[in-house]
Amino acid sequence: MPIGGILALVVAVALVVAAGVWAATTLSSGGKHTAATKKASPDGSSSSGAGTGTGAGAGAAYPYGPDVGLKSPLRTGDCVRAVWTGTAFASRPKLGVVDCAHGVPDGQVMAVDAAKDFGDARDHGGERCAGDVKGVAGALADAGVYALTPTEAGFRVAGGGTACLVLGRHAPIGGAIGRFRRPGSNVWTTEMSVGDCWLYVDHTTYFTATLTDCADQHTDQVIGSVTAPRAMAFEDALRRANTLCGNRFESTWAPGSDRSVFGYLSDESNWKAGFDSVVCTVGKSDRSRTTGAISSSGTPP
Fold this sequence. Notes:
The protein has 301 residues and is of the alpha+beta class. It contains three helices and twelve strands; from the N terminus they run βββββαβββββαβαβ.
């Protein structure tokens, strides 16, 4: 997210593999965040579809209208925090640009669609955004696309651009996503995308998941996610994470004894906010490192 190495100087992250859960502690009181403090945005209920309201009557000083609150247009790669004014993904959010690595963002601008005029942005900007970035959202466990169109008054200030956002549906994604990440960055469960390869690193008192190129040594490859049963409690999900993922993916991705399917949850605060997805990975049964990506058929390329 801008991506550096493992954020060990800022946070201590614990990934309990046997239970399949992330936990974390803050090393200072300087406003830095960890997985355990990634709270969902207010009114962050889930809803399908991209919001494309026009913000009628907004002043030209606000490219997306005063309700959104931004005075400068969003750029590709910007990370944001979002507070929904109504139903999530169906209302105009109040947005603030934050640091991708330390601001615990709800999501990121993956593209900006340039329209020829306001009518084009209003009528087609959202559709083009959905087509451009739905693959990024679909690869995450619990994310959606939101198209933020400029208002008519702010169209010129926005450069005619509709911001194509990928946002967490129930919990902050927590960092950069997609092409904005680099090998060596630390990834949370909420950030893990299908196809990611990462290295389980033991730091004695905590563990991290370090993003790698799949051609390089890694312990896990993300193959999908499953939604926990509605009535399942968090503690039960921890105990059954591997089973939940195995039931879905083991026959295809790990039919032999040399590979296993593993399940990872986010923290309990995100679970209570509605992030009840279990991220599923495949790796060596003995947790040793391997190289090369496994294809969708469960076999090496």
